[in-house]
Design goal:
Radius of gyration: 22 Å
Strand order of the largest sheet: 6-7-8-3-9-10
Structural class: alpha/beta
Helix content: 25-40%
Number of strands: 14
Shape: globular
Largest sheet: 6 strands, mixed
Distance between the termini: 27 Å
Number of helices: 12
Strand content: 25-35%
């Protein structure tokens, strides 16, 4: 079967700047694919190409068998898109937002009426259908945004930081909804900065400086890219401890994780003695050390290193992207006699 996404040596340049540098990957139908990377790594540029909003400079790309370079309008008509920035209308009621976006998608009234009821049930908002959108908690707003993106039954949905700003319980509930969609055959392409969320993905692509530097399931990435043993340390001064440990012989990497430190050592290193010696020499008290199972954040630290602090300029907002996509949905569907 043809993959839902197929990229082959895709490049996107803006003048002399290469935002996406020869990326190749496949995403299967019904897969939950996580796309991770530091700010400015090329995630948003890649997604905009996949959504038909940008044309690649070179290389070939296909979304549901449609060519990114020549069939962008049809691609837009056959996907759902949910941006990080809430892009619906706060002054409308929940159901009014759905009717508005269903109309923009060009859905006829009988179909839209039935589809709104189906989506309301899916996102558990039937009892809030007459609520003013701005009065909804952030988590319910996110569900509504996803619901609007699903109205036209797209086979593929792009989620750009879908749970940004919501609490852990709400994030977990949102991911339960994503799993249900995947079980129904919808392909999910998601970006997130929450490493615990990335664990929920079937596979992950890690991008840095425009290049795809890792690809595989969460378990595969940990085995493949985390040689040695990871230890969690509780110390008197985490900043000073990371500085003291980084670059020492036997220390592969060290990073702050909340109030603790994760240190990855070569397997032949005598962890307790080696770490204590370094920290004691730096005047830092080590209160606890234990070997732990590595996380995807450890993979991220090992492969990417220090995160960038500013995202490369993109020139568009999530709201503008949403509007362009839904308008293109209507135009392309009419053009191809699909409504």
């Amino acid at each position: 079967m043809t993959p839902a996404v197929e990229l082959r040596d895709v490049v996107k340049r803006f003048g002399d700047f290469t935002a996406v540098d020869h990326i190749s990957l496949d995403v299967a139908h019904g897969e939950i694919f996580g796309f991770l990377g530091p700010n400015g790594a090329g995630k948003s540029t890649t997604i905009r190409m996949l959504c038909g909003l940008l044309r690649p400079t070179s290389g070939r790309g296909f979304v549901n068998g449609l060519d990114m370079a020549t069939q962008a309008e049809v691609i837009k008509a056959n996907l759902g898109y949910m941006s990080q920035k809430f892009s619906l209308y706060d002054d409308l009621k929940v159901e009014e937002n759905m009717r508005l976006f269903g109309g923009i998608y060009g859905l006829d009234t009988p179909f839209l009426k039935r589809r709104i009821e189906e989506v309301m049930t899916l996102i558990s908002l039937k009892d809030r259908r007459q609520s003013i959108t701005k009065e909804l908690p952030t988590g319910l707003k996110q569900r509504l945004a996803l619901g609007c993106a699903l109205l036209h039954e797209p086979p593929m949905v792009f989620l750009d930081e879908p749970t940004s700003g919501v609490d852990p319980a709400t994030r977990r509930a949102f991911w339960d909804l994503i799993y249900r969609l995947a079980e129904e055959g919808v392909t999910i392409f998601v970006t997130t900065h929450y490493m615990e969320e990335a664990e929920y993905c079937n596979r992950i692509g890690l991008i840095d400086k425009g290049r795809l530097i890792a690809l595989g399931s969460p378990g595969e990435l940990k085995v493949r890219h985390l040689a040695g043993t990871v230890y969690e340390l509780m110390v008197s001064d985490v900043l000073a401890a990371v500085e003291a440990l980084s670059g020492n012989q036997g220390v592969l990497d060290a990073a702050i994780f909340g109030r603790s430190i994760h240190v990855r050592l070569r397997k032949d290193a005598e962890a307790d003695r080696a770490i204590r010696h370094v920290l004691t020499s730096a005047g830092i008290e080590m209160r606890e050390i234990k070997a732990i199972e590595p996380t995807l954040e450890d993979v991220f630290v090992a492969l990417v290193g220090k995160k960038e602090t500013a995202e490369a300029p993109t020139g568009r907002t999530g709201h503008q992207d949403m509007q362009q996509i839904v308008r293109a949905n209507r135009n392309a569907l009419v053009e191809h006699n699909e409504i």
